[in-house]
Design goal:
- This protein is α/β, with parallel strands linked by helices.
- It has 3 domains: 5-26 and 353-383, no CATH class; 35-216 and 326-343, 3-Layer(aba) Sandwich (Rossmann fold), CATH 3.40.50; 220-322, DNA Methylase, Chain A, domain 2, CATH 3.90.120.10.
- The chain has 12 helices and 12 strands.
- The protein has helices at 10-26, 45-52, 65-75, 108-116, 131-142, 162-174, 236-251, 274-277, 296-302, 315-324, 328-343, 374-378; strands spanning 5-8, 35-39, 56-61, 96-99, 146-152, 178-185, 195-202, 260-261, 282-283, 352-356, 362-366, 382-383.
- Strand 8 (260-261), helix 8 and strand 9 (282-283) form a beta-alpha-beta unit.
- Helix 2 (45-52) crosses helix 11.
- The two termini are 18 Å apart.
- The structure holds S-adenosylmethionine (SAM).
- Residues 40-43, 45-46, 61-64, 67, 82-84, 100, 102-103, 324-326 line the site of S-adenosylmethionine.
């Protein structure tokens, strides 16, 4: 679409902008609930988010039997197993493909662990790396209106950017989707620093913007229980070991340390290995006291799961499941934007920005190329009025 930049008086432009807002507010989606599929569904973080945003799940798959138990307890349906054993044509018709595809071949930990074992990594890891191509095959066969993929932040830099370049070109050049991606830190919605890359694609060349998240988020105190079983307190032996280990590494100039946090803090990233020693997130119980781990229910909250979410598995499995999951409110905001984008005509370009200039004049301009002069932003003389 050509960029438009039109000079007009302040009254005219305010009137136009308001008319645009009115038009936008009367727009109603004519489509029924968008159908989505929940691949590598784990315990259903994507599902809660997309259902809350108005979607309807028509298929789910995850081969982990403990995750299947949690998923079934919460959604009344057991996910299909290994995605390789599901004939693609048997997947029902859907509009949006959701997948937090397995991150191990791409994560820093995964890469270093595998390299140290002399194993291949990334796309060379035959069993897991090719799961992306499975997704590509499903997209190619069903041609959904959109997809939302999630992975670790390191996907972007893996193998000097080559892995992401292959993923991006497969989705854009080979499959023909218009692709947007962004690394989002969940700390603005939960008290956890957790950066993940989200890749959103549209079959038609739609304009999409990732949701904006607030700068400041909640603190740990908001998700802690006041009454937690003593079984979550570290043993003296483990606590002494962790302190000595951290000291040794600090003296050697390495970064390793445990993550001791209090009510006013934001935690490190909860990992799927939290059940091992819990060292990344240890809750302080006061000076001189041995800290404790988070209880599984607190981990659920740390990932943005509602308290109504059932946890029918052992603590070990629950820690693994939440550590592998997505932060639900982050995905929910993305889901809302995706569904809203799909409900508009594919050539919709909503971003008209009304800029007030220093001379009192104003410019109404297309914002798709972010052409608002920087000086208006810094002087707070720009007012964003349109949808
Ligand atoms: C990063 S987790 C996704 C978690 C999920 N997004 C959630 O919110 O809970 C990746 C999942 O992929 C599943 N998985 C890995 N390989 C699979 C395969 N070949 N078929 C089906 N599921 C698989 C794992 O069991 C794991 O639960």
């Amino acid at each position: 679409m050509p960029q438009t930049s039109k000079k007009m008086s302040r009254d005219d432009s305010v009137g136009s902008a308001l008319r645009l807002c009115e038009e936008a507010s009367v727009y109603q989606a004519s489509e029924p609930k968008p159908r989505f599929i929940d691949l590598f569904c784990g315990i259903g973080g994507f599902r809660i988010a997309f259902e809350k945003a108005g979607g309807s799940c028509v298929f789910s798959s995850d081969w982990d039997k403990h995750s299947q138990i949690t998923y079934e307890a919460n959604f009344g349906e057991k996910p299909e197993g290994d995605i390789h054993s599901v004939p693609i044509k048997n997947i029902p018709k859907f509009d949006v493909l959701c997948a937090g595809f397995p991150c191990q071949p791409f994560s820093i930990a995964g890469v270093s662990k595998k390299l140290s074992l002399g194993r291949k990594h990334g796309f060379d890891d035959e069993r897991q790396g090719n799961l992306f191509f499975k997704l590509a095959e499903i997209i190619n066969h069903h041609r959904p209106s959109a997809f939302v993929l999630e992975n670790v932040k390191n996907l972007k830099g893996h193998d000097k950017g080559r892995t992401f370049q292959i993923i991006h070109s497969t989705l854009t050049e080979q499959l023909g989707y218009k692709v947007y991606y962004k690394i989002i830190d969940a700390k603005s919605v939960v008290p956890q620093h957790r950066e993940r890359i989200f890749i959103v694609g549209f079959r038609e060349p739609r304009h999409f913007e990732f949701p904006e998240f607030p700068e400041k988020g909640p603190k740990l105190g908001s998700i802690l229980d006041s009454n937690v079983s003593d079984k979550y307190i570290l043993t003296n032996n483990l606590w002494t070991y962790l302190q000595n280990y951290a000291k040794k590494h600090q003296e050697a100039g390495n970064g390793f340390g445990f993550g001791l946090v209090s009510e006013n803090d934001t935690t490190r990233t909860l990992s799927a290995r939290y059940y091992k020693d819990g060292s990344e997130i240890l809750v302080s119980r006061g000076k001189g006291m041995t800290p404790r781990r988070l209880a599984p229910r607190e981990c659920a909250r740390l990932m943005g799961y509602p308290d109504s979410f059932k946890i029918p598995v052992s603590d070990t499995q629950a820690y693994r499941q939440f550590g592998n999951s997505v932060v639900v409110p982050v995905v929910e905001s993305i889901a809302q934007q995706v569904i809203q984008t799909l409900s508009r005509p594919s050539d919709h370009r909503p971003e008209l920005v009304l800029s007030f200039c220093e001379d009192g004049d104003s410019i109404l301009q297309d914002n798709t190329a972010k052409r608002v002069p920087a000086r208006y932003k810094t002087k707070r003389e720009m007012m964003k009025v349109a949808v």
